[in-house]
Amino acid sequence: MKKSEYILSINPCIYGMNYHDPGAAIILDGEILFAIEEERLNGIKGSKGIFPELSIKACLDYCGIDKNQISCITIGYNPELWMKRLQLELVDIIDKCQENQEVESRKVMNRIIDSNLVDRYKFYSDYENVKNLIMKKTGIEGSEIRFFDHHMSHIH
Questions:
Q1: Which of 34, 42, 120, 141 has an alpha carbon within 20 to 30 A of 84's alpha carbon?
Q2: DSSP symbol at 69
């Protein structure tokens, strides 16, 4: 008989991993035991750019478990898609510079620097960066971390 495993599913809303409506859910054997959005706990509508710390705590408290009982963290976000998005952002910046006839390389570079494109590219080019950020923010180390396409997370 397979051992039951608690899964923590989160919408992190930081570092470009989605943007609004952060929240968390605890799943056991495919059944959602408890789920809550951060705005219900902090009173900030949409809670844009806020990591769901209160939601995670509420889930753990409601289920009567602690962080070391979480075997897997799932996130409705695919870091590989972010890399493609960054490439599209770069093309967009260059296109806008050409439209405005800002072909001077310094102006183009300043727009790229202002967009934090390089930093985001470095961050997302190494899966371990993303994994370490999630472990640090949740305080859960050693759990498996799985990413799914955001739109697939709406299926359940």
A1: 141
A2: G
Give the strands of the sheet with 6-11, arranged side by side. 31-37, 23-28, 6-11, 70-75, 144-147
Q: Are strands 6-11 and 70-75 parallel, antiparallel or unpaired?
A: parallel
**pTM (two decimals):** 0.79
Residues 83-126: tens digit of each pLDDT: 787 788 888 877 777 776 666 667 777 877 777 778 888 888 88
**What CA–CA distance (Å, rounded) separates 55 from 142?**
20
| Residue 54 lies in domain | 6-75+127-154
The residues that bridge with 11 in the sheet, in sequence order, are 23
SS3 at position 77? coil
Which CATH number characterizes residue 35's domain? Answer: 3.30.420.40
